[in-house]
Specification:
Translation Initiation Factor IF3; Ubiquitin-like (UB roll)
């Protein structure tokens, strides 16, 4: 920028993008000072290097505003982990499913982990069935992102929230059918 440019001649581009031409460095800097702008080297490897007349402070500010807007739009996904045992009670299963539903409603991914103990490890299909049962109960709000996978003494599955949740089917009763005369 300005005095830090080392090339003897530069190709100058106006703020609107039009070509001014090849100028000596001193002449290009003088032109930038007359227009109250900065001479910024945009293509240092070109022959001769390309420099643009611009308000560098304003340019840096606009870049930071764009970056801030991009950060606002990006979403951070968090993974919540739930643990179950193979021999889980119905009530405990319902609590785990409800907790997973809350996490998915908050747009978080859910990693479900089943730990096999002792002889349970010989029958991994029990854990797989349990994970599929959980996935079916959450089918309206979540979808399987990573299928059940056995790793050592534990089996894991990841459920991600659906982009567009499935509409829940509600049974409407016809008043003609329910009336008893």
């Amino acid at each position: 920028m300005n005095g830090y440019i080392r090339a003897p001649q530069v190709r100058v581009v106006a703020p609107d993008g039009s070509q001014i031409g090849v100028k000596k460095l001193a002449e290009a800097i003088w032109l930038a000072e007359q227009l109250d702008l900065d001479l910024v080297e945009v293509a240092p490897n070109a022959k001769p290097p390309v420099c643009r007349l611009m308000d560098y402070g304003k340019y840096k500010y606009e870049q930071s505003v764009k970056e801030r807007e991009a950060r606002k739009k990006q979403t951070r996904t968090t993974i919540k982990e739930l643990r179950m045992k193979v021999r889980i009670g119905d009530h405990d299963f319902d609590i785990t499913a409800r907790k997973a539903r809350e996490f998915l409603a908050d747009a978080d991914k859910v990693k479900v982990n089943i730990r096999f103990r002792g002889r349970e490890q010989e029958r991994p299909e029990f854990g797989r069935d349990l994970l599929h049962r959980l996935a079916e109960s959450l089918d309206d709000i979540g979808q399987i992102e990573q299928a059940p996978k056995l790793e050592g003494r534990s089996m894991t599955m990841v459920i991600a929230p659906r982009k567009h949740p499935k509409p829940t089917e509600t049974k409407t009763s016809d008043p003609a059918e329910t009336s008893e005369e």
